[in-house]
Amino acid sequence: MEVNGFHCDGEGCAEEQEEEPKALRRPRSKTEASCSIMATPGADSAAAGGSALREQRMSKSTPAMLRLDSLKKNRPPFPWFGMDIGGTLVKLVYFEPKDITAEEEQEEVDSLKSIRRYLTSHTAYGKTGIRDVHLELSDLTLWGRKGNLHFIRFPTHELPAFLQMGRDKHFSSLHTTLCATGGGAFKYEDGFRTMANLQLLKLDELECLIKGVLYIDSVVSSGPPECYYFEHPTDPERCEQKAYNLENPYPLLLVNIGSGVSILAVYSKDNYKRVTGTSLGGGTFLGLCCLLTGCSTFEEALAMATEGESTHVDKLVKDIYGGDYERFGLPGWAVASSFGSMMCKEKRDSVSKEDLARATLVTITNNIGSITRMCALNENIERVVFVGNFLRVNTLSMKLLAYALDYWSKGQLKALFLQHEGYFGAVGALLELPNPS
Amino acid sequence: AHLKSFPWFGMDIGGTLVKLVYFEPKDITAEEEQEEVENLKSIRRYLTSNTAYGKTGVRDVHLELHNLTICGRTGNLHFIRFPTAAMHRFIQMGRDKHFSSLHTTLCATGGGAYKFENDFRTMADLELLKLDELDCLIQGLLYIDSVGFNGHPECYYFENPSDTQNCIKRPCCLDNLFPMLLVNIGSGVSILAVYAKDDYKRVTGTSLGGGTFLGLCCLLTGCETFEEALEMASKGDSTNVDKLVKDIYGGDYQRFGLQGSAVASSFGHMMSKEKRESISKEDLARATLVTITNNIGSIARMCAVNEKIERVVFVGNFLRINTVSTKLLAYAMDFWSKGQLRALFLEHEGYFGAVGAFLELLKSSDDA
């Protein structure tokens, strides 16, 4: 039986916990309960100390004993992946162990080593795969191992190429569980099986999303704060990103903006409901932009939107009223009819692609904001967290959401954002690894 | 009674269309006719002997209310519309026909009543009596519903909205209109909760309305009018353009009750170059229509649930000759609420604001 790079037993790992930065020791009993194998401050430190002892133990264990040991402690064999196969993007998180001993390395199978090297020595894979290095979480302790958590994405339409790679690298021989969430976990289940002989552990995307959000927020201890908000979002001079403490997050409205949108009301770690959704999401923005401007990628669409002026495209309240619609508190600058000026040929001929891209962005974003506000009001929740890859490199939308929520709720609602945006589903999937289905 | 002098008009100057209601008296005595000033006679003849005015004005003859008795006079109520873009030409015409010499009050609502107030004054020496559009909408709706549509019900709904074969339009006998959620779909959308004749609030609105549908269609398909856009939409298939739940899940998303046929991401396929090259203009028009309509339906439903109102009445000219949208709204309300909500529609669709303004004219005469 091959040892897939796993070595440590529970007591031996206790020493590592003492080396943890203090921030990780924040008491977060709820997340600890869900990630029961995660480092618990002070828990096993009473056990025999000293790495020397650990090595002594190591040299006496056979691979089979180690595996048995790990199974007893419910730790999964490497590699550790979490996968979220969405409508547009596949999000992959990969845990790279940094505490591999010489012995472990020696026993490590080639395919595992090759996977580790391939993933960590590149930041781009093929033509479309990308590793978001700026999101990497270093020195993370997970299930007794220390390492880096990597965040990788590629378009869902490249999944066949990914499966091919899995087959070529004999991933299935590693007998590891592949935890996957998102619609694609269901849609491509057979594909994984037939093309790469891999069995997926399918998980619900919203379950994973919530677990992932709670986990990441609890472990981020250095670098930019995971959760933040915007102060003075529409004032370019004064606009500031500020940290927000999500320690007592409940109740929370979680708005996941991917290809489409899901809105969840989260009351506690295990108590949430899907309030509603809207089909006007990130996929709509990109699809419409491609049609209206001829662009091909999300980045191009955003670049154009940054340069454009949506008021050339939209019909504002002042275009209809000549000013404010005072009776119902609608300021003249509010949009009365998105793309409303485009029914006029002259106006169509006078707008630029950039204006159209901007209007598309503003329309989709404001619609999401409006629906979100209605939900927050009905569910009586003041905190709204926006996640999902529509917001990736998209400060325009984030600021718009921040402003709109604040303005239309007269300061009652607060828009919050998270650094790891669209990766929470994949993280949640990773966290399910120790639990067999 | 000191009645307001003829002509009797009500005007709703919206973001896209001007809606005009005109009362044509049919009980004019020989004496009255003799005393009638020339320009008044000319206005009456011009309006009632044409069904089209200039290049863009249209009289919706099928909506005409016959033998209406109001404030002691009997006549026909006519429904006329023209693009707001032609407003200055209209004001010009008012000047040319010496409308101001008739010393009549011109009751106007809609944003344009405020925007064009000065133009009316300076160009045609006419003073507008400005009224709120939502007040007028409700008063107009209640009035038309109470007088009926030439003996037929004004209000209707669809039976079996989910069944394309057996979906039938049925008249609706509303014993009690209240409370109702009123969704006015014009260039943009306003959603009102109406509890009684004089008790309502504007719940919310959305800027994704009829203007969005038409604007996007013009951009995406090269069409130029609402009628062209609808024509294209009736022939297209939006599922070629939208990404459905089954495109992402391979089937239903059972956990949260989302059928495979539900749209997950509107226009979601259009990020793919291949798909963009394989769809037609008709598909794009259809997808635009479906996207806007479903978004309105979704928001309306949320409001109905929150306000605890079961009746949702949809009005506004977005629904004019637009059975695709009316049926879609009927279906969506029924389906997503599991039969709790009912979508209702009214024959005079986009004219209620103008009717409300018209009523205000007569109301002010009662006070005199």
From TrEMBL, chain A:
Annotated EC = 2.7.1.33
Q: Where is the composition biased (Low complexity)?
A: 42-52
Q: What class of enzyme is it?
A: transferase
Q: Name one GO cellular component term.
A: cytosol
Family annotation (Gene3D superfamilies): 3.30.420.40, 3.30.420.510
The listed locations are: Cytoplasm
Tell me the InterPro entries matching this sequence.
ATPase_NBD, Type_II_PanK
Keyword Kinase on entry: yes
| Family as reported in the entry's similarity comment | Belongs to the type II pantothenate kinase family.
Instruction: Please report the name of this protein according to its UniProt entry.
Output: pantothenate kinase
User: Gene symbol?
Assistant: LOC107582531
UniProtKB/TrEMBL annotation, chain B:
The family database entries (InterPro entries) matched by this protein are listed as: ATPase_NBD (IPR043129), Type_II_PanK (IPR004567)
Q: Where in the cell is it found?
A: Cytoplasm
Mind naming one GO cellular-component term on file for this protein?
nucleus
Return one Gene Ontology term, BP aspect: coenzyme A biosynthetic process
Q: Which UniProt keywords apply?
A: ATP-binding, Coenzyme A biosynthesis, Cytoplasm, Kinase, Nucleotide-binding, Phosphoprotein, Transferase
Query: What EC number(s) does the entry state?
Result: 2.7.1.33
Q: What is its main location?
A: cytoplasm
Transmembrane stretches in the record are none
Give the catalytic activity.
(R)-pantothenate + ATP = (R)-4'-phosphopantothenate + ADP + H(+)
**Listed pathway(s):** Cofactor biosynthesis; coenzyme A biosynthesis; CoA from (R)-pantothenate: step 1/5
By sequence similarity, the record places it as follows: Belongs to the type II pantothenate kinase family.
Q: Which NCBIfam families match?
A: panK_eukar
The protein here is known as pantothenate kinase
Q: Which gene carries the instructions for this protein? A: LOC107583547
